[in-house]
Design brief:
The complex is a heterodimer of chains A (800) and B (129).
Chain A lengths: L1 H24 L5 H28 L6 H6 L6 H6 L5 H24 L5 H18 L16 E4 L17 E4 L5 E5 L1 H9 L4 H4 L18 H25 L4 H30 L11 H26 L9 H23 L16 H24 L17 H24 L5 E3 L1 H24 L7 H26 L4 H25 L7 H21 L2 E8 L3 E4 L2 E11 L4 E10 L2 E5 L2 E4 L6 E4 L1 E4 L3 E11 L10 E6 L3 E4 L2 E10 L3 H7 L3 E11 L2 E12 L2 E4 L1 E4 L4 E8 L3 E7 L4 H7 L4 E10 L1 H27 L2
Antiparallel strand pairs in A: 1-3, 2-3, 5-23, 6-7, 7-8, 8-9, 8-10, 10-11, 12-13, 13-23, 14-22, 15-16, 16-17, 17-18, 18-19, 20-21, 21-22
Helix pairs in contact in A: 1-2, 1-6, 2-5, 5-6, 5-9, 6-9, 9-10, 9-12, 9-13, 10-11, 10-21, 11-12, 11-14, 12-13, 14-15, 15-17, 16-17, 17-18, 18-21
Chain B lengths: L1 H25 E5 L2 H6 L4 E7 L5 E4 L4 E7 L5 E7 L11 E9 L2 E10 L8 E3 L4
Classes of the chains: A alpha+beta (800), B alpha+beta (129).
Chain lengths: 800, 129
């Protein structure tokens, strides 16, 4: 309840801040302080509400629907904290919290820079207001009580001491198809419980818990980082719309630039951490599967990155006094980056991707669908509408004098090519809204030529100068890099066995980009290190794409059956399954596989378990990371060994002289039979045999048989007796001083018994992913590059 | 100036042309009517529910996983997937399979399982009071 009130107060503060900031922008003198107080008041209440939600999760306050639905008693603290964003309500809450905090930094940033604060914060608070409406009691409120909407609770969630309560009878329900029992929790039951002095929190003993697919280390890291990226994408939008309000297009470019860089750096990191998580999970199709949910966060990133390139041109061309080139383009791109973030949220949370994605949330209800549509639509119309309204002020009057070989044009082309890629992904990802869908080859085929052009531009644009370059100069300058790049790509093509022309070209273009950027980076590193950003980021991209080529073109996969203690070799690795052990309090099973490659030995441990959450078998792959490649072992299944008896058979133990009956056959153990010299042989440790004389009788027919225990060179063997007439199979299992153990089965079951006598087998699928480490290293390098640039551009915002 | 726009225009038209062509080539329709699924040779995304009563079968020799699916009109078809049982399959109520129907069964190259969220309506009160 308190949490809800906090959020409503925060909403009021947010709207107040928006109005006050707008009035300050309009020239009112006394309103700025009120605006600031309101904004910080909003932030405090959002932080307080978030703290309450965390407190409720950590203390298992199951009276909240959200706490009950996304956490349980067995989660450790890390996952309890992460269950904050396990469901829709909480992930909106996280987005809101991070946006509010980003706003605090933005407020302080803009207040120090040329009266930008009112216009930027007035726009920014529109976004916080929308998010606050989203988590308000009318939509996705995380503080909704469990009885607010009738809900079925499984019996295991209920504290057993209250199951006898007489009034509880009328709340029992059964699922007809499965026969499981439920208790319907509603406001009436809440009232009755309260009347008996029982709190709902006592009544419910345990929550549903987190989906086992989310019980992964990266659950604690990936969503917050992605949402920081989403939150930061709000800032360039606010700068752009603020500039349009003021009708002043010079300053915002410089001030928004570091924000856009930082936002895209964080968003890129967040996206690829998600990729790494997907790589570690089965069934998500590797680090990038062109899943609509993955795509939907990539699209704003691509558009934002395109914006970085054109923003750079506008900054540079402003030196001539005008507003600079691409003023319209930059406003549009900054608006679109945030609108596409909102669109991404719409796609993943409105339920439209329900049938199309492995990650999306299902069925949030119609109101949320329309609210998200309204949210996205409002920002799109506000942004683009303002641009259209100011269109005639947005022309750059300065003379353009750059030629075909200018860095300006190269950067613009880069932006256009990036946008083309964004459009492709947008079209494919939006198709499910219209009941369509595209195969992943659509994305691959379309983006491949684009990636080639990007690689070439990536290198070329750095070799050509601002404004114009002479063709001969360019040729002279690019010759050494071109030849080195050619050498590298020939090496990649030959060693990797690449036979597709386009992939060869891609390898070449990326090698070219890598060489040029590295060359310049090495030159700069001795001088001004702040200038390194762009080159480092581009080196990262090139490494990343080379990793993508390596890991996808030469990835191989094979299914192997690992019989216990027998080694199997695949891709030059010798794998031996050595047995399993229970882990995590006997809830999971870890399968030990020894892997040998050359002289090196490794141990890998895939895990399988049956999850309580959904009664499903969950499989966790093991990844052996080596410098040149990953060995990826995913468990498929496991067969237990059956020790000498089939499921239909039994094992009996008979004392000398006693008898038993099996399948209508009387079995009597009459006596031991020791041959001459057996005792002597036993004592001397030589080979020997002992027999058990057994008589079997069925329908008056009697047969005397002898089962033997043989010891040959230290190995013990038992003999068996099979009779069609008696429909029986006897196999000696053990012989001790005064009794025998015999495995019995029907004759007709013998064949099956033999099969089931096989040993323990672990079925795995093994694959190798060459150079996949380049994918991760590439992204890490790229993100570092982004932040070097942020440092440099941040400094520039204060000068002049 | 005019040339610039001409050049840009041509590139955009060519790009859109290629995109539309590839889109239609790679387009996969959703289909919730299995009689349609069985009568087409195209790859489709068939949506329906898993027939729990018929269970599922995992063939360790051929590394295939098979089960039966039914659509809203009660049409049943066998689905064979080259691979192992997907995580979460046991509790899945509705299933989306991508592939085509050939030689009497559906060859799935991808299985997407959806977890129950709306089956609560089917529950009935058992109290006698």
């Amino acid at each position: 309840m308190v949490g809800t009130i906090f959020l409503v107060i925060a909403l009021a503060f947010s709207i107040l801040a928006m109005v006050m900031y707008y009035l300050s922008f309009k020239g009112y003198k006394n309103t700025l302080n009120y605006a600031r107080i309101s904004y910080h008041g909003m932030v405090l209440f959002i932080i307080a509400a978030s703290t309450l939600l965390w407190y409720a999760l950590i203390n298992h306050q199951y009276q909240y629907n959200y706490v009950f639905s996304y956490s349980n008693n067995s989660l450790d603290t890390g996952f309890l904290i992460a269950s904050f964003w396990g469901g829709q309500q909480g992930s909106f809450m996280l987005w809101l919290l991070l946006t509010a905090i980003v706003g605090v930094i933005l407020q302080s940033y803009t207040s120090k820079r040329k009266e930008l604060e009112p216009q930027v914060m007035a726009v920014f608070t529109i976004a916080t207001s929308f998010l606050l409406v989203m988590v308000s009691p009318w939509f996705k409120n995380p503080f909704e009580f469990i009885w607010a909407t009738p809900m079925f609770l499984e019996m295991k969630s209920i504290n057993p001491q209250y199951l006898e309560l007489p009034f509880l009878q009328q709340f029992f329900f059964t699922d007809n198809s499965s026969g499981t029992g439920f208790i319907q929790m509603n406001s009436q039951l809440h009232g009755l419980l309260a009347g008996s002095g029982i709190s709902v929190n006592q009544f419910i003993a345990d929550g549903k818990g987190l989906n086992p697919q989310l019980l992964n280390f990266w659950m604690q890291i990936h969503p917050p980082i992605l949402f920081v990226g989403f939150a930061m994408a709000t800032v360039p939008f606010a700068f752009a719309l603020g500039a349009l309000m003021k009708n002043d297009y010079k300053e915002w470019v410089r001030q928004a630039f570091p924000w856009l860089l930082a936002g895209m750096g964080v968003l890129g990191l967040g996206i690829m951490l998600g990729g790494y998580w997907a790589y570690e999970m089965l069934g998500w199709g590797g680090y990038w599967a062109w899943d609509p949910v993955e795509n939907s966060s990539l699209i704003p990133w691509i558009v934002g990155v395109a914006g970085i390139h054109t923003l750079l041109v506008q900054r540079k061309s402003q030196s001539k006094g005008g507003i600079g080139r691409f003023a319209k383009t930059n406003l549009i791109l900054c608006v679109l980056t945030y609108v596409l973030v909102l669109y991404s949220t719409f796609l993943t949370r409105s339920g439209v991707l329900g049938d199309a994605s492995v990650h999306s949330f299902v069925d949030p209800g119609n109101i949320v669908y329309f609210f998200l549509l309204l949210f996205t639509g409002t920002f799109l119309i506000l942004g683009l509408g303002a641009i259209v309204y100011r269109w005639k002020w947005l022309s750059d009057n300065t003379q353009t004098d750059e030629g075909l070989l200018s860095r300006e044009l190269a950067l613009f082309t880069a932006a256009v090519v990036l946008l083309a890629s964004g459009l492709i992904i947008l079209v494919g990802t939006s198709a499910p809204i219209f009941g369509q869908s595209v195969d992943t080859f659509f994305y691959n085929e379309m983006n491949l030529p684009i990636a080639i052009i990007i690689g070439l531009l990536n290198g070329l644009s750095l070799l050509i100068k601002w404004r114009n370059t002479k063709t001969e100069d360019l040729l002279k300058k690019s010759l050494p890099s071109l030849s080195i790049a050619l050498l590298i790509s020939v090496l990649i093509v030959v060693l990797g066995g690449i036979d597709e022309i386009l992939i060869m070209l891609l390898a070449f273009s990326m090698a070219f980009s890598l060489v040029v950027n590295t060359e310049i980076a090495i030159k700069i590193i001795r001088g001004n290190k702040k200038m390194l950003g762009a080159y480092v980021a581009h080196i990262g991209i090139a490494l990343f794409i080379l990793g993508v080529i390596g890991s996808s073109v030469n990835s191989q996969q094979v299914d192997v059956d690992l019989v216990k203690n027998e080694s199997v070799s695949a891709f030059g690795y010798e794998m031996t399954f050595t047995g399993w052990m229970p882990i995590d309090n006997n809830t999971k099973y870890s399968f030990n596989i020894d892997v040998k490659k050359g002289d090196s030995e490794y141990k890998v441990r895939p895990v399988m378990y049956v999850s309580d959450f959904n009664n499903s078998l969950m499989r966790i792959p093991a990844i052996l990371t080596l410098p040149s490649q990953d060995l990826y072992i995913s468990p498929l299944g496991y067969d237990e060994a059956k020790h000498n008896h089939s499921t239909d058979g039994t094992k009996i133990s008979l004392k000398k002289g006693s008898s038993t009956e099996f399948n209508g056959v009387n079995i009597t153990f009459t006596k031991f039979h020791l041959g001459e010299g057996t005792m002597a042989a036993m004592q001397e440790g030589k080979d020997f045999q002992m027999g058990a004389l057994i008589s079997i009788e069925k329908d008056g027919k009697v047969e005397e048989i002898e089962l033997l225990r043989k010891q040959i060179s230290g190995k013990i063997e038992f003999t068996s007796f099979v009779s069609e007439e008696f429909d029986i199979n006897l196999k000696l299992a053990n012989l001790t001083a005064d009794n025998v153990e015999i495995a019995l089965s029907k004759m007709s079951k013998v064949a099956e018994e033999r099969i089931e006598e096989k040993q323990e087998v672990l079925y795995v699928s093994a694959s190798i992913k060459p150079f996949i480490s380049f994918v991760w290293i590439g992204v890490a390098v790229m993100v570092i590059g982004f932040f070097i640039s942020v440092m440099r551009r941040l400094q520039e915002t204060l000068s002049g | 100036m005019k040339n610039k726009y001409m050049f840009g225009g041509i590139i955009i038209v060519v790009f859109l042309g290629i995109m539309i062509y590839l889109f239609t080539q790679s387009n996969i329709q959703y289909q919730d009517d299995f009689t349609q699924v069985m009568n087409t040779t195209k790859t489709v995304k068939a949506t329906g529910s898993w027939v729990k009563e018929k269970s599922y079968h995992q063939d360790k020799q051929n590394k295939t996983f098979s089960f039966y699916m039914v659509d809203d009109n009660g049409n049943e078809m066998k689905v064979v997937y080259n691979g192992s049982i997907p995580n979460n399959f046991e509790t899945a109520t509705s299933v989306v399979v991508t592939g085509k129907y050939v030689n009497g069964y559906f060859h799935a190259k991808d299985i997407l399982t959806k977890c129950p969220s709306k089956y609560e309506d089917e529950r009935v009160q058992t109290s006698t009071l």
